[in-house]
Amino acid sequence: IMSDSDSDFSDNSEANDDEKVSRPKQIRGVADFVDLSFHPSTTYTLATANMNGYVRLYNCVPGEECEQLAKVRVSKKPCRSLSFSYDGEDVLILTKDRTMHFVSSATGNLTRRIEETHRSAPYCLSVIDKNLLATGDDDGTLKVWDLRKGKDAVMTSEDKFEDYVSDIAVDDKRRLIFAVCGDGTMATFNARQRKFIVHSQNEESDLLCAKVIKNNNKVLVGSADGPILLYNWNEFAAPSDRFPGHPGPVDCIAKVSEDVVCTGSADGLIRAVHLLPNRFLGVVGDHHGLPVEKVEATHDGKFIASCSHDNLIKFWSVDHLKSVEVCPREKAIKQKRTEKMSKSGVGHGKMAFFSDLNNDIDTSTYINSSSSSDELDSDSDDAS
Fold it and tell me: In what order do the strands lie in the sheet with 312-317?
């Protein structure tokens, strides 16, 4: 109940717009989430992985609390990367103990394991097609796997990178893979022919994430120094364009359309960015100063989910971004870098703060009442 002294908040149009946005309510976990992935076709089925080795599946409905469908602890070590399979039948998880786990998205049961996938801890995973996937580790080794051919990789590259493989992007034809590295370079491979194509020039800054955009005509790469790098197709040795403006590292990218992406940064803000012409559209999400670890879009591009070091997964509406048109003759507006877009559900002031409290959902709600969630998500060897 609001008193007369609070009436100024009720007149806040941004806050009122924020309350009208229908998006899934945020999920509160008991340990930091490290990765998340949406099902490639079904309506808003979300898989999450956390630092304690747990994988959970949720059904996310706009305007409602997310329903936990399954929970399994795949390892006593932290999860490192997670993705749905190409057909969505399985969730693939890499853990710090160098194991790849397969969890059925229908039953939530662990169905398969591949042990000792890398010599060092794996860092990232990317699905190429229904049979092929690529993984990268902390020492710069890239591997391509054919799930029909047992437990050995069909391609291994150990000499292209001098640091960790931070992300792997796949083109729309499921043929080329682009691996970016902490040593400041990007390597391009032909996954079907199992061969290396080209190594890019060194950018002298960690390359952190990559996406293929513009209908398979551009590769977009986020850097630790802030600029977004754009590579022309078949010209992957050096970027053709640089888009500065982020105040810190661009840690992750989610593709909303062929022209618009959402970037997660170390300052906790998720920004909508239009590419070619390059413009900031506004802020669509906020983790209040904590680095954004992952941002992922639904298969229809209506929502994105994000996670940070706050044990939360937050949802933001981005459907309105798909129809944005940018005139190349208009001057860029600097304020757009920090201007919050109420249509996405990120508001201003005290109203937005109090409304966020109602969005929290504790995963322990779905855990057997005979055991606390802290016990079940413990890192101790006695946890089952």
Answer: 27-28, 312-317, 303-307, 294-297
Q: Which tokens belong to 57? A: 């599946």
Q: Is the CB of residue 249 less than 8 Å from the CB of residue 222?
A: yes
293 vs 196: CA distance, rounded Å: 29
pLDDT reported for residue 180: 98
Least confidently predicted of 9-13, 129-133, 158-162, 297-301: 9-13
8 Å CB contact between 260 and 211: no
Phi and psi at 140, nearest 5°, equal 95, 15
Asked if residue 68 lies in contact with residue 54, where contact means CB atoms within 8 angstroms, the answer is: no
**Residue 136 to residue 134: CA distance in whole angstroms:** 7
- pLDDT interval class at 333 (50, 70, 90): confident
Look at residue 42 in the predicted model and tell me its pLDDT: 80
The conformation of residue 80, written as its DSSP 8-state character, comes to E
Q: Of 158, 92, 167, give the one whose Cα is nearest residue 120.
A: 158
- pTM score: 0.85
Cα–Cα nearest to 130, from 187, 101, 92, 157: 92
pLDDT digits (tens, 9 = 90+) for 189-207: 999 999 999 999 999 999 9
Ramachandran area for residue 192 (φ above 0: left; ψ -120 to 50: alpha; else beta): alpha
Please name the residue that has the structure tokens 């050995």: 152
Q: Tokens at residue 48, please?
A: 């999450």
* Residue 200 contacts residue 238 (beta carbons within 8 Å): yes
Angle between helices 13-20 and 349-357 (to 10 degrees): 20
C-alpha radius of gyration, the chain, whole number: 21
Asked if pLDDT for residue 348 goes beyond 60, the answer is: no
Residue 295: name the closest of 273, 275, 322, 278 by CA. 273
97 class by beta-carbon count within 10 Å (0-12 exposed, 13-18 middle, 19+ buried): middle
